[in-house]
Amino acid sequence: MSSKSKSKTTRRQFLNRATVIAAGLPVPALLGWTLPARAQDLPHLSEDDPTAVALKYTHDASTTEERASATDVCNNCQHYTGGAGSEWGPCALFPGKQVNAKGWCSVWVEKAG
Ligand code: SF4
Q: What is the pTM for the complete model shown?
C-alpha cells in the first residue's frame, strides 16, 4: 500500500466521522448560531430599573395620575409588541425585557392603525 492510498483512507475515515458527528447536531449549532430568546421568555421589567424610574413606568397604569387618558396603557402603545391578550410583552424602549400590558410610562404613544 502506498503512502498516497493510506492518506486517502485516513481522509475518508475522517470525513465519515465528521459526517456522523454533524448529523447529530442541530443546524444552528453547526453554524455557531444561537437562537434568539422567545419574547415570552424575556424577564419582566422592574419598576426599579433606572430607565423605568426615569420614564415613570408602572406595571399598573391605574396607579398613576400622569396619563392623558385613563385608556392609555402599554397594550395600546406604539412601542408595545406583545401579542393580543398577552399579559406581558416586549417594548421597544426596554430591549430584552417585557412590560405589563396594563402598564404605562411617560413615553406612551397611541398605536397606529
Ligand atoms: Fe408601555 Fe409604551 Fe412606555 Fe413601552 S413606551 S413602557 S409600551 S407605555
A: 0.71
Q: Is the CB of 89 under 6 A from ligand 1?
A: no
What is the three-class DSSP state of 97?
Answer: coil
Nearest atom (ligand 1) to Cα of 55:
3
Helix (H, G, I), strand (E, B), or coil: what is residue 89?
Answer: strand
Question: How deeply is 78 buried, as exposed, middle or buried, from its count of CB atoms within 10 A (0-12, 13-18, 19+)?
Answer: middle
Q: Is any atom of ligand 1 closer than 6 Å to the C-beta of 97? A: no
Helix H or strand E encompassing 99: strand 98-100
Is the minimum distance from the CB of 101 to ligand 1 under 6 angstroms?
Answer: no
Give residue 21's pLDDT band: very low, low, confident or very high (50, 70, 90): low
